[in-house]
Structure formats: structure tokens, C-alpha cells
Specification:
Length: about 325
């Protein structure tokens, strides 16, 4: 079922989760081990992230190094099909521009369509590690909106190969990313919002946000979106803060602020277990307030912390 259909028939706040594909070499059971403790809460769907390959230097037998492309977390499409089959729940693959050309993307979308996966989250992706800026692959997309247009074209039966006439139409429900604290490359929130509106006007059905720890920033973002004429559902993405290290990692990697009340409480903790407790309580309060505000869904990035998310969801739903 499409995300839009889930939202249309909802009578209360929905719940969804996000998982990462396991590192290459691990089995699908690691995904099930991760999700099993969460599935009793009956999420409406599960998102699966997508990961581009990274360049690494491998030592050769003669002592010299060669640059190799390694995709550490492959399997997004297969994991989505496995989750749908195993749990009878919808899965939403993330599709990214970075590292793929349009033909590879088209093939992945055809695979998804044949597998009965009719939801996607269309993203640009980040620059590879150790590279300063995002560059599209030759024959790839520069921005999420270009990927989105490829998907809406496919929904209209338009394939890259112009010889395909009367092509079978896909029926993807398409989500895009939004940033309550602005995307880090955007010169200001107004320009970021203008590009977000372009994605919605080009056919995005809903927005899923970057994590945030201050609900006021989310509320202001929703207000700004509505004033800008963005009327699609906005789904908050939520993550627990569970260690002191994350006080610097999360702002650096995800460009989000940590409210001082939360950072002060984390700083006072004497162990990771204490940090986890503080982060759990913060996320419970955040979630309750968002629910009261009337968000359509609470979407949790589970990222290796299913027990924490379980404790939060138990208190919120
Ligand atoms: P875009 O919408 O293309 O925006 C990128 C930047 O370009 C922004 O600064 C925007 O303001 C600007 N911009 C947009 N359109 C234009 C234009 N036409 N001209 C000029 N500037 C423009 N990454 C992964 O690799 N895999 C994942 O699975 C993944 N999942 C994510 C899930 C969520 C909910 C979120 C919020 C992010 C996720 N990311 C993921 C990270 C994401 O790929 C990065 O944040 C990336 O830097 C931007 O992606 P985007 O889709 O927002 O890009």
C-alpha cells in the first residue's frame, strides 16, 4: 500500500521505522533481529536506506596501493522485498542520485516495480567520504528533483529509451527530504524552502524530515512550508541521542543543533547507559509533543538502537 493511502485512512498518529542494510557479508537475519522487537507495535511501513560505494585504498602484494570502489551496505532493494514478505508490512527504499547513472536508476525502479514495492524516498545523497562536494555520476542526476522527475516520468510510462512506446506505467508514491534546520549547502532557509517547494510541485507526495532535537524548529519549519504553499504531509524523522560522542558527531554529520538542556544533561552522565536514559526520556517527550501537535506519523531512525526505540514507542503509543 502507498504511504499516501496509509495517511489517508489513518485515524491516529501512525508509526514507522527506518533501518540500514547490514554490512556486506552479514545475513538478512541481522535485519530481522533488529526489527523483531519493534514489529509488535505494528508500524505502517519500514524505510530502508541506500548507500553509495566508497573509494578505499587496498594494499597489493607488491606493497603498493590500489584505489577500489567498495559498497559496504548493498542490498536495499532485496531487503525491502524481504521485509515485505517476512512481516507483511510495506517497505520504502531510499533511492539516491549519488553513485548511479539514470539507466542504473531506471533498472532499480523496474526491479522495485516488479517486486511490488510502490513507495520510494527520492534523495540526492551526499558527497563520497573524503570528497568536498557532491558531483553527479556521468549520466546521473545533480539534484533530488531530477531523480523525482525520472520517477514521475516512469509513472507516466516514459522510459529513458525513446523507442519504448506505450511503456508500462509504474505507480510509485514518492517522498522527498526536508530540513527543519536547513540543508547545510543551502545559503539560507528561504532558498532551501524554494527548492523543497519545487520538489513538491514536481510531484512529491510527502516530505520526510532530517532528525531534529528541538520541536520548535520542526513547528517553525511546518509553518514556513504551509506559508510557502507546501501542503503535502510532513513526517518528522526522530533519532535518540545516546552518547556523549554524539554531541559532536550529530551536528557535524547531520548539521543539527542539540538544545542546551539536552546537551547539559548528557554532559552530566557518567556512563553510556545514563546517556541512553537521558536520550530516551528526551525522545519520549519530543514524541508526545509532536503527537499532540498532530503530526501524521512518528518516524524513528532505529540505527542500531532498537531497544531504545522500543522503550520510546512503548511510552508514546
Ligand atoms: P536535494 O533536494 O537535491 O538538495 C540538495 C541541496 O541542493 C540543498 O541545499 C538544496 O537547497 C539544493 N538544491 C535543490 N535543488 C536545487 C536546484 N535545482 N538548484 C540548486 N540547488 C538546489 N543519504 C543517503 O545517501 N542515503 C539515504 O538513504 C539517505 N536517507 C535520507 C533520509 C532522509 C529523511 C533525509 C533527510 C536525508 C537522507 N539522506 C540519505 C541524506 C541526503 O542524501 C543528504 O542530506 C543530501 O545532502 C541531500 O539530499 P536531498 O534529497 O535533500 O537533496
Amino acid at each position: 500500500m502507498k504511504i499516501t493511502a496509509h495517511l489517508a485512512k489513518a485515524t491516529d498518529t501512525l508509526l514507522s521505522f527506518e533501518v540500514l542494510p547490514p554490512l556486506k557479508g552479514k545475513s538478512i537475519s541481522s535485519i530481522y533481529d533488529h526489527l523483531d522487537p519493534l514489529m509488535e507495535f505494528k508500524p505502517s511501513w519500514v524505510n530502508v536506506t541506500y548507500h553509495r560505494s566508497e573509494s578505499m585504498f587496498k594494499k597489493k602484494t607488491d606493497g603498493t596501493f590500489e584505489k577500489v570502489e567498495v559498497r559496504k551496505r548493498p542490498g536495499t532493494v532485496g531487503i525491502c522485498a524481504a521485509i515485505m514478505n517476512h512481516y507483511k508490512v510495506d517497505a520504502v527504499p531510499h533511492i539516491i542520485c549519488g553513485g548511479f547513472n539514470m539507466r542504473e536508476t531506471e533498472d532499480a525502479l523496474i526491479d522495485l516495480n516488479f517486486l511490488g514495492v510502490h513507495n520510494v524516498l527520492a534523495l540526492r545523497g551526499d558527497a563520497p567520504k573524503n570528497e568536498a562536494s557532491f558531483d553527479a555520476e556521468p549520466g546521473g542526476h545533480n539534484y533530488a528533483i531530477d531523480l523525482l522527475k525520472q520517477i514521475t516520468n516512469l509513472n507516466a510510462g516514459i522510459y529513458l529509451d525513446e523507442d519504448i512506446l506505450n511503456g508500462g506505467k509504474t505507480d510509485f508514491c514518492i517522498g522527498v527530504a526536508g530540513y527543519p534546520e536547513k540543508h547545510f549547502e543551502a545559503p539560507n532557509p528561504e532558498i532551501d524552502l524554494r527548492y523543497l517547494k519545487e520538489k513538491v510541485d514536481a510531484g512529491a507526495h510527502y516530505i520526510m524530515t532530517q532528525m531534529f532535537f528541538d520541536n520548535q524548529k520542526f513547528f517553525a519549519f511546518v509553518d514556513a512550508c504551509r506559508k510557502a504553499g507546501i501542503n503535502v504531509p510532513i513526517i518528522p524523522g526522530l533519532k535518540p541521542l545516546t552518547s556523549k560522542k554524539q554531541l559532536s558527531v550529530l551536528p557535524r554529520v547531520f548539521h543539527v543543533d542539540i538544545p542546551s538542556t539536552l546537551s547539559n544533561d548528557i554532559m552530566k552522565c557518567k556512563s553510556d547507559a545514563e546517556c541512553e536514559q537521558v536520550g530516551t526520556e528526551w525522545l519520549i517527550e519530543q514524541s508526545k509533543e509532536l503527537r499532540k501537535f498532530g503530526v501524521p506519523v512518528l518516524h524513528y531512525y532505529t540505527l542500531g538502537k532498537p531497544k531504545v526505540i522500543r522503550n520510546v514507542v512503548e511510552q508514546v503509543f
